[in-house]
Design goal:
The protein is an alpha/beta fold. It has ten helices and twelve strands. It has a domain of about 210 residues: Rossmann fold (3-Layer(aba) Sandwich), CATH 3.40.50. Helix 2 links the parallel strand 4 and strand 5.
Length: about 325
């Protein structure tokens, strides 16, 4: 089985690549000319690097000729320009999907979407795969459009859509600012401390994908990949335990988050940087319930994510320290 992996130079993709190599899959990675290869540099002798950019369909024409399975992880996590979400997450995904179809060789297409494609749920509810999607951000809407486009072709190839929740672990820099603040004895609660989120350690995400590749799936299947649901105040308490000290809590009310997101976008445009906090993310952060059920994937694979948040945060903390980020 020859797998084409996109996003191999990123956080989730680099861990997926390591799993694929451990399990002796033949792997090619789609990379751009200017891609930063820091996470895969020491694996270049074990993989094939295929140069291309899914924003430019013509660069994909010679990429798919010997590929059996596409695992599409690459996407845009945050941007100060909301148009880019649709360009990268939707148009880019559509391009690589069309290239897969035209090849006549690709049998399976696995798309890493995200929880944001579904949106939050009402207080007391837990979202599952059967509930209607109501994304609140451009990031989520662009991913939902991609899901809908991909599902149109579930009779032409085996389609699988995976929706990771908040994934963390070594090589993730999304939570790094929180770790840096905690090191200095501070935890910033953005909005409602009772807000519920779902977090999953990277090793558990990768294990679920590994089992899906071995077991197979029904074309058109959709699964949430996640861990346990936690209110923000419990996450704060676990950070205190990881760092071994009581953290001073600073609360920022919901009403200020869009303002912070607005100014972050202004600075981003001025300094030409895509800051993580923006208006799009603020729309998600003011929602109170992102609880998710992983019962479907757990029953299908007979597998339950085993890494507790406390252990996962500790492993992530140790990696940050070892690599000089803390």
């Amino acid at each position: 089985m020859h797998i084409l992996l996109t996003g191999a130079t990123g956080f989730i993709g680099s861990h997926v690549l390591e799993m694929l190599l451990r399990e002796d899959y033949k792997v090619s990675c789609l990379v751009r000319k200017k891609s930063n290869l820091r996470w895969i540099e020491n694996k270049k002798d074990k993989i094939t690097l295929k140069e291309g950019d899914f924003l430019y369909p013509e660069t994909l024409e010679k990429v798919m000729y010997d590929i059996d399975v596409v695992i599409h992880i690459a996407g845009l996590p945050h941007s100060v320009d909301w148009h880019k979400y649709y360009l990268v997450n939707f148009i880019g995904t559509k391009n690589i999907l069309q290239a897969s179809l035209k090849s006549g060789k690709v049998k399976k297409f696995i798309y890493f979407s995200g929880q944001s494609a579904c949106g939050p749920v009402s207080k007391g509810e837990i979202r599952d795969e059967n509930m209607q999607c109501k994304p609140v951000s451009h990031s989520g809407k662009s991913k939902l459009l991609s899901e809908e486009e991909i599902l149109k072709f579930k009779d032409k190839m085996d389609i699988l859509i995976l929706r990771p929740t908040i994934v963390y672990g070594p090589r993730d820099f999304y939570l790094l600012p929180i770790f840096k603040l905690a090191k200095n004895g501070v935890f910033i609660t953005l909005g409602n401390p009772n807000r519920v989120i779902n977090l999953c350690y990277i090793d558990d995400i990768v294990e679920m994908l590994s089992l899906l590749l071995k077991r197979g799936f029904k074309s058109g299947d959709i699964f949430f990949l996640g861990g346990e649901n936690y209110p923000i105040y419990e996450v704060r308490d676990l950070f205190s335990k990881v760092f071994g000290k009581k953290l001073k809590n600073i609360s920022i009310p919901d009403k200020f988050l869009p303002i912070l997101g607005f100014f972050s976008e202004i600075f981003g445009r001025v300094f030409k940087k895509d800051y993580m906090l923006n208006l799009d993310l603020a729309k998600e952060m003011i929602q109170d319930n992102w609880a998710v059920s992983i019962e479907k994937i757990s029953q299908f694979l007979n597998y339950t994510p085993y890494t507790s948040l406390k252990i996962g945060l500790h492993k992530t903390y140790e990696w940050y320290k070892k690599n000089g980020y803390l």
